[in-house]
Amino acid sequence: MPIFEPARAPYPARMLSVLRIVAGLIFLSAGAMKLFGFPPPPVGVPPMAGVPGWEMQLAGALETFGGAAIVLGLLTRPIAFLLAGEMAVAFFQVHFPISVFPTTNGGVAPVLFCFIFLYLVSAGPGEWSLDALLSRARRLRTLRMNPARRPSGGLVGLHYDL
């Protein structure tokens, strides 16, 4: 594969899935730490001052259950949009008042998560996801119900856009 050429299928869709799964697992872990105290927070890290307890519980719930949905690739686009918004709020509410620079205010993770989730809103979940599985099943069901919409080669060579 030439270095300056786009990667050939199926690798981009698979790597998109890998990015989604890894980001979702890390996000789920952060939410579980807020909700359940597991994994235990790092030693010496103080609790977030100025953030009400209900907001931490809401953030923990969004991160735990949203992260699980992202891992599974279920309702990826709307959930990723919601989680990107949560990370933007987290950055501007907690980190931005300290400094405008994410590297000095501890806001690198929220900024990265925000833009990874915005990318998932745009790119979709990738081929290894429940969304893709449901989409393929819906298209096959549509083709079975309406043979006139079937491509000339039948189901062979049918391309699915995710």
Q: Characterize the biggest β-sheet.
A: none
Please tell me the overall pLDDT.
Answer: 89
Low-confidence stretches: none
Radius of gyration: 20 Å
Shape from CA axes?
elongated
- Helical amount among residues, as a percent range? 55-70%
Distance between the termini: 23 Å
The structural class is: mainly alpha
What amount of the residues lies in strands? under 5%
Series of secondary-structure elements, N-terminal to C-terminal? HHHHHH
Structure at a glance:
With 162 residues, the chain is mainly alpha-helical.
Features:
mainly alpha; elongated; 162 residues
Task: Describe the protein's architecture and organization.
The structure is a single chain. The protein has helices at residues 11-36, 53-72, 76-95, 102-105, 108-123, 130-145. By secondary structure, the chain is an all-alpha fold. The longest helix is centred in the N-terminal third of the chain and has 26 residues, at 11-36.
